[in-house]
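INTERNAL AUDIT FORM
Audit reference: QA-55
Scope: verify that the stored structure record matches its stored sequence.
Auditor: D.O.
Record contents follow.
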Amino acid sequence: MKQTVILLLALCLGRTLCSAGTNDWPSAFPSAKHPWKRAGHEDAATAYRSEIRQFMKLPPEQVKSAPAAVDFPGTPPPDAPRVERTITVNTAIPRWHSTGLYAAPGDLITVTVPADAASAKLTVRIGCHKDTLWSEKIPAWKRVPEITRSFPLAGAVTHAANAYGGPIYIEVPVGCPLGEVKVTIQNAVAAPLFELGKTDLQTWKDQLRNDPAPWAELVSSNLAISLPSASVRHLDNPDAVLQFWDRVVAAEDEFSGQTNRTSPERFVLDRQISAGYMHSGYPIMAWLDQSEKVANLDALLKGNWGFFHELGHNHQRPEWVLAGTTEITVNIFSMYCFEKVCGLPRHGHNAMSDAKREEALRAFFSDPAMTWTSKPFTGLIFYDQLVEGFGWDTFHKIFIEYRDLPKAERPKTDDEKRDQWLVRFSQMTGKNLGPFFTAWRIATSETARNSVTNLPVWLPEPDFPKRYEVAK
């Protein structure tokens, strides 16, 4: 009841202020300690969305600090000095460029670019937490659902502000022809920034990691990480951490046949994200509890299935992702990184232990009604058996083959995808995998199966799958 009253008061206050034409903010807001539950308050949630959206459209000069910013994403210390810096942005690299600067909540920053850059569709972004939480599938808000803003750099001088503050980025569109551009940013707060190959390690230890902004950036050519500054205040080896992540991204690039990387991947940690425990995309999003792992080399060397998994999503190709296997084939990348980057057994997830695999196989082959994609780690065993039988290099060659397929030869339907995976893998290995697919109840056409019958039959075990069938 108390929470409902707070929510309704905040909404009423917001509507009153909005109708009065002011940009003050309600003092009540969702937080980790006091999340706002949506159930039973759908109308209030809709009204709150309208209020937030209106406030987020205010001209920069009218923006004030939102009280919620103190809670998340945080504010610099009151005495944090405002600085002016000129940075060089290489526009040959698209997406977000970290600046090592932070816009305090409500502060008006000024961004100056050369006159010829005003028509290049560059953007200044304030805030890395771009996930919005408006979806009806999200039952409660642990932070304000929308907290980032972007402003086009449509003139030589641009003013920008965000009521919640946030790290400052220069966003570059794909194909920008400007080359290197000097960008000057005024009235910002220094933020911890370590750039692999550019930042002096001793300067990092003596000064940069203690810069006052509440969010920090670790950046390499393959990966950028946005995490709370508290997580880097005592980080002595950001170079080694980034070198590890460079190896992970490079491994997934090479394995999948991706040779055209134009910008780093990006991880952003958040109190609440739009879906799941982590999700892929740009940036890859994860909850805050990963902040103690993402930059902890000892922890990383033990493997992080989830991060490898989300990077894997960014490397999947629709041509070889069979229907129902999006959350199955992605784990091939987790296994690969465990083995090839961390030097660990590829079965790094508990669900892939010998006992769990045996249990899953018995459950599947004893239940004719179960589909092979109904449980992700059951389906993963199918691919793991192919790894065990033919090695990682076979997958690598298959992925390259798919990458280089002429458009006319790419599978267009789920039936074609299954047929091509059977035929291409059989031809690559010189083995007839038709009986293996049939054992797993993976539907393929008679034409596809007949096309590889000239090859010797392969099964992972001589009595596969008989030994896993439990007698009724």
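Auditor finding: record pair retrieved intact. The CA atoms of residues 82 and 188 lie 5 Å apart.
Action required: none
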